[in-house]
Design brief:
- The chain is mostly beta strands and about 425 residues long.
- It folds into 3 domains: about 15-130 and about 230-260 and about 405-410, RlpA-like domain (Barwin-like endoglucanases), CATH 2.40.40.10; about 140-230, Expansin, cellulose-binding-like domain (Immunoglobulin-like, Sandwich); about 265-395, Jelly Rolls (Sandwich).
- The protein has 5 helices and 26 strands.
- The protein has helices at about 5-10, 60-65, 110-115, 365, 420-430, and strands at about 25-30, 55-60, 70-75, 80-90, 105-110, 125-130, 140-145, 155, 165-170, 175-180, 185-190, 200-205, 210-215, 220-225, 235, 245, 265, 275, 280-285, 295-315, 320-330, 335-340, 345-350, 360-365, 375-380, 385-395.
- Strands 17, 18, 19, 20, 21, 22, 23, 24, 25 and 26 form a 10-stranded antiparallel beta sheet that branches. The chain has an 8-stranded antiparallel beta sheet with strand order 13-12-9-10-11-8-7-14, with no helix packed on it. The chain has a 6-stranded mixed barrel with strand order 1-5-2-4-3-6.
- Helix 1 runs antiparallel to helix 5 (about 420-430).
- The chain is elongated and about 90 Å long.
- The termini are close together.
- This is Expansin-like EG45 domain-containing protein.
- Keywords: Disulfide bond, Signal.
């Protein structure tokens, strides 16, 4: 192969190596990410260049006493995709309600979250998977303050995949286990005194081993291991207990976005949809008598030109959906009594069956709606004060819609000069071919 073509391919594609299947979770953001987090990796730089990995915290249950520290995840949100490294824990308390419980929640550094979601919304639903951290350096060991031959405490960082076990040996024959703390420090627990030099043995979640030699008892000193862990090519890991298993044959090439749009209302507003009606005399979102399906439906008494209105916190792509479907019921037949609005387009409909559920489907193409996104929908009353019932509101998927799957691309580095540089290099290479 022409070496210029080879170099160009490197610039064009640099996807992360997946280590798990894709899962759904939630995300929020935090602003104190530059400080030393629960994993004790030290302060985080805010300078975003090629190779920058955004910081993230996992909810307390998922953090699981620091076993997740240093592991990288690819995060797909409504706005884009990033990679993060677990450097902190999101405590399960009243200040962090989404970090309570067993469900998986990422608290992402503010500078990274803004690339996948809107900070004004406070959070975003995401899909994610474990990936190998694309670090091109050896593992590092950082000694703690006050280390000595009777107490040795340290942090292991910059490992490409998860770290599960650390031991120390004085003679390469007898190995002493080190204990991992909730703050991700490792402590030599033997009653024997250490003598230098000694060797630290680090074992990955894939049972790969890497070694480092320590020649002194200096506080807060950084040491280089001989290498980094190997990235497995045919192995996946359970994201909670980190046990390894064979890679699925049908595993996704990239993670698809969470579908937060198909179901608008089903017993309650779902996904990203939020009710924001106007000019209503009353509104009951939990009406439980003679609903079309499920336990609840909507009952509302609407003033003339009042609207049952709802919007998406993150707009839906029009490419993904063909129609808006809902069921409506009213006590009397009425002619041209309802206007359905999508953006600046509208369709006027009549109710031809009294006191019975009627299905209505509004096709966006027939409506003439051509915007790239669907951000809000309204059902307006055109007559005097009237009571309506609504149920099972949804968007119908376009069967020919393109995939929503996204993979992180190292060569796309938002808010930095690196992307411009990479594009410039790629253009030069193309001209040289």
């Amino acid at each position: 192969m022409n070496p210029l073509i080879f170099l160009l391919l490197i610039f064009i594609s640099n996807a992360l190596i997946p280590l798990s299947t894709c899962f759904e979770g939630t995300s929020t953001y935090y602003t104190s990410y530059t400080e030393n987090g629960a994993c004790s990796f030290g302060s985080i730089s805010t300078t975003i260049n090629k190779g920058y990995i955004y910081a993230g915290a996992l909810n307390e249950a998922m953090y699981n006493d620091a076993i997740q520290c240093g592991i990288c995840y690819e995060i797909v949100g409504p706005k884009g995709v990033i990679r993060i490294r677990v450097v902190d824990m999101c405590p399960a308390n009243d200040e962090n309600p989404k970090c309570k419980g067993e469900s998986i929640a990422f608290d992402i550094a503010e500078n990274g979250f803004s690339l996948i979601g809107e900070k004004s919304n406070g959070g975003a639903n995401i899909t994610f998977r474990m990936v190998a951290c694309d670090i091109d350096e050896n593992i590092k060991i950082v000694s703690s303050k006050g280390v000595s031959n009777s107490w040795y405490n340290f942090v292991v960082k910059d490992h490409i995949i998860g770290l599960k076990e650390v031991k120390i040996t004085l003679d390469n024959n007898t190995f002493y286990e080190c204990k991992r703390s909730k703050s991700n420090t490792w402590t030599f627990t033997s009653s024997n005194l250490l003598t230098t030099p000694f060797t630290i043995e680090m074992t990955s979640i894939n049972d790969d081993k890497v070694y480092a030699i320590i020649n002194d008892f200096t506080s807060e000193k950084e040491y280089q291991a001989f290498s980094n862990f190997k990235i497995p090519s045919d192995t996946f890991f359970d994201i909670k207990n980190l046990q390894k298993h064979n890679k699925n044959d049908d595993s996704e090439e990239c993670c698809s976005m969470v579908d937060e749009y198909s179901v608008i209302y089903d017993d309650k507003f779902e996904g990203t949809w939020i009710e924001n009606s106007n000019s209503l005399n009353s509104l009951d979102l939990k009406y439980d008598n003679d609903c079309y399906e499920g336990s609840y439906c909507v009952k509302t008494n609407m003033k003339q030109y009042g609207a049952f209105h709802f919007y998406a916190q993150y707009p839906a792509s029009l490419q993904q959906y063909s129609s808006f479907k809902f069921f409506i019921k009213t006590k009397k037949e009425c002619k041209e009594c309802i206007t359905v609005l999508c953006g600046d387009k509208k369709k006027i409909i009549s109710i031809t069956q009294a006191d019975d559920w009627v299905e209505e489907i509004i096709n966006f193409e027939e409506l003439g709606y051509t915007s790239d996104t669907i951000s809000s929908l309204s059902i307006q009353n055109n007559q005097q004060d009237t009571t309506y019932f609504f149920d099972s509101l949804s968007l119908i998927k376009n069967q020919k819609a393109p995939s929503t799957a996204k993979c992180f691309d190292e060569n796309v580095v938002p808010n930095s000069t690196a992307s411009v540089y990479m594009l410039f290099v790629a253009i030069i290479l193309i001209n040289l071919l």
